[in-house]
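Tutorial sheet, problem 5. The two components below are modelled jointly, 782 residues in total.
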Amino acid sequence: MKLLILKSLLLVITIVAIQYIISLGPHYNPSNYLSIIESKYQRLNQTPPGRIIIIGGSSGAFGIDSERIERYFDRPVVNMSLHAGIKLKYLLEGVSPWVQKDDLVVLSAVLSNFESRGDQTSLMLLNAYSYLSDSMIGNDYLLWLKVKVNYIQKKINRILVQSFFQLFFETIDLNQVERVYEHRNFNEWGDIVLPAIPNRKIEIQGTLKSGDLLPYNRKLLSAFTRDLQGKGTRLVIACPPLYEPAISDLGLVHKLFGQLGEIPGLEVISQPEDYVLDESLFFDTSNHLNSKGKVIRTQQLIADLERYLSAISR
Amino acid sequence: MLFNSLHFAAFLPCVVLLYYLIPYRFRYLMLLVASYYFYMSWKMEYIVLIMGSTVIDYFAAKKIAGATLKEIRRRWLVLSLLSNLGILFGFKYFNFFSDSARQMFEAFDLSIHVPYFDVLLPVGISFYTFQTLSYTIDVYRGKTQPEKHFGIFALYVSFFPQLVAGPIERSTHLLPQFRQKVVFSYENFRIGLWLMALGFYKKLVIADRVAIYVNEIYADPQSAGGMQIILATFFFAFQIYCDFSGYSDIAIGSARLMGYDLMENFKRPYFARSLSDFWRRWHVSLSSWFKDYLYIPLGGNRKGYLRLNINLMIVFLVSGLWHGANWTFVLWGGIHGSWLVLENFMSRAIGPKIKLPRLVSIFITFSITCLGWIFFRADNVGDAFILIRNIFQPSGGLSFAEFTLFDICLSLALIGLLELYHIFEEKDRFYVLNASWFVRWPAYIGVALLISWFGKFFEPSEFIYFQF
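Model answer (structure tokens):
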């Protein structure tokens, strides 16, 4: 038994040491879209309470003008929206420790996020979290381990490409990021500011299938709402942009919003009809608005927030 | 509970630790509880089916052994066969036959209502049903005595490492082991952990990786071109091998940690030089089951050349149906049966005079198995024929966004590494464990690093054979 334990320990120590050495050094791709997560957390950490914190997927990163909202309400805005693949659990838990009294949390996620399992640690989450310092990940040690393993896997792939693969095949650059998805396109509020580019063929993503809120997600949202209420904060749901050619019937969206509205303490502040936007306002997917679309969506969000804030102040 | 889940990573060490800590006389009980928990973590209700099979076969075997009249013995055997196969038929095949009947009625414009049984297939039902059947048949044949201890017999039916996907153990091999007093053995741990590591390499590094390519190509047969289909089928050959033999390795390794020796289920099947050789290497516990309980009772090779070939075809068609309730599996079995008939004919006509070079015979056998895999993997028979037709169509690029040229090369290299290991394993099953420390330790570290670097951990997929 002693021999087995000793040899196992020796094996584990050797492997951990090798992995540690591999994990040293600069990050494999600092210009990646997801790497903005660190700056977003820095802003969340540094801004005073009373903020409007926007969470969601890339429809929030591409389609909101936070500066305009900040000026209108005279409250700091932090746009934490990044990618729908991060899934609901981590979209919520990711901001939970940082929310303070008098903040307002606005969840504007792609609607399919509410229908699908929101608790999976997706590769998107692991990729994004690899840009965070360990303390930001919190006390979820399993998540921390997954992030590290995923990071090492990516690094090994990169090493293989650079050392062997390129000897035989065309040069490929794993660091290459499409221009519009570059880290540098984010402004200080956490919004993407698109360079002037023509619209592309629109890829339809994240449409509703049944309009049913998954019970697991209902639990997540209920727990998060209770947590916020305990801190003297509120959670509201705003509609993401809806791509007109893909929307034949708003019944499913109303059904979903009806179920979301039944969660105690949670309020849906938007009417889906106000967010159905013309094809010309999107630039590459049915979630990503172009500059013109962003203005329209932001104005609508401001109107919804104003209505809500004045209602609760009465 | 999947072997490749965190749930199992916590479950197994707890079970093994408890196993060695508690007194010997309670071990069977602890393992039985652990096995039922293991099964119930998938779907609680279906434990009733395992318990039902256990009770029926326990008492049927006792009655068979206790009866003196052959007629009585036969009645109890028939009761056991009917109840086990009845459950299997009800859950696995009823809808297949009712669908086929409905399609036939529709073809003849007949509006006859055919019932449909809306139920989820209990995981592992084909495996534990065959295991318990072998027990009652062996008792009937007088090959073994009935197990007197109900708890130990229940453990034989439900032993968690091999419960849901085999190896399908014989009572003569496994039951006596549950009565042995196992003491901690360094050697057992060494073998068990090595087999588990190999299993995880096969499943996480190869099977789950190439599955991405296979799924993409097989999902849309119409758009797939020749080279893509060939590569996808090559990958599927290794996906299914690594998925299933990986499961077997983890199962055998887990049991070995507790001192139990399960039978070897795969013996490097793609080194086979003929299809009959392939079936001595592929899913050995099932092929030997069919040989002992179907082929030989049908007459085997004792009733002439024609009957031998008919028996072979029957066995392989049934084997196809065992795998799944779909005509694709029946055709897969048919291809294997037909090729075996052809091999018999060739060896009778030519005899051992002409012997193909080793590599050529391996290549031919592998190609035939790949042809069979097309039917095995395709969603339906129509898709399989479209894929075969499209093999001769030109194709665009081999890679796509989710599986780049780099991923293809990496997958081929990882498969190559496994086959390289198999060359050594062909000489000695535990080549690495028996080698000197400067081979052994780099191998341990290498396998652990390869799993951690290239394993697909984050979205664990089920083992393919769970559906059977």
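Marking note: Residues 187-273+356-454 of chain B form one domain. Full credit if you identified this.
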